[in-house]
Amino acid sequence: MSGENLQQLRANISRRKLLDAIFAIIGLLTILVAVLTLLALIIRLAIDGSSRLDWQFFTSFPGRKPEEAGILSAWIGTSLVMLVTLVAAIPLGVASGIYLEEYAQKNWLSALIEINVTNLAGVPSIVYGLLALGLFADKLKLGESILTAGLTLALLVLPVVIVTTRESLRAIPNSIREAAYALGTTKWQMIWDHTLPYSMGGILTGVIVGLSRAIGETAPLITIGALTFIAFLPESPIKGEFPFISFEWLKAPFTVMPIQMFNWVSRPQPEFQFNAAAAGVVLIAMTLVMNGIAVYLRYRFRKGVKW
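Predicted structure:
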């Protein structure tokens, strides 16, 4: 190589390093701006709502007087709705992802299903509310209940869980499958004992993303008839007599934290704005706790599985 070509090569390498450094700085600044903006909003929310965060706020029903109003029915309603969503969406989503990736034949039908599932992940949430209103509330006669709300949000979460399950399974090297088959395992044994444990970290990441979206949704729940004011609790799932478990709470009317916050924000009194801020802090805390549990489970799965 001549000296002129060598000098040109060094100049190109220097220019590319400079461009890489500029891109890294721009990316870092973008992340810092986003994180600092989010942190400022959370701090402002915490400052506005800190005066209302006490035991009475958690154990009182909403009311006309802002200093006496609480979120008892809202946080219990949110917890029960998310429980139904969790139970309905995760097993069905993971099973669907396993079937599409491991069992379904690679033909036009599976490609069509894959395209539709991917598109469903971007459908506006109000569309799921209209679907649930016609299917669950009217056709299946489930009414405006916690069960209807949980199934509605499960439909919202389902495409995300299916897509992340498929991507997680697809990332597992074929050598793992071939080694399992070489030991004489069946297809299901290979999936259950090998590919599924290895992919569980990615699957839980999808579950985190889906549930984080679902816990803050209001449009589909308002569509199916969530109440903006409720001063009673659903029936307890634990009974004093046999069989000690009741499912009547699934049929109960409900409200959730985002709807309660919207109700308070729409009030003209400034005291209700502080209540809404306090409810926002609680909602963020519930989301962080839920995500923290999922992150811990993901860490345990990844720690227990060795490549």
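Summary: The chain has eleven helices and no strands.
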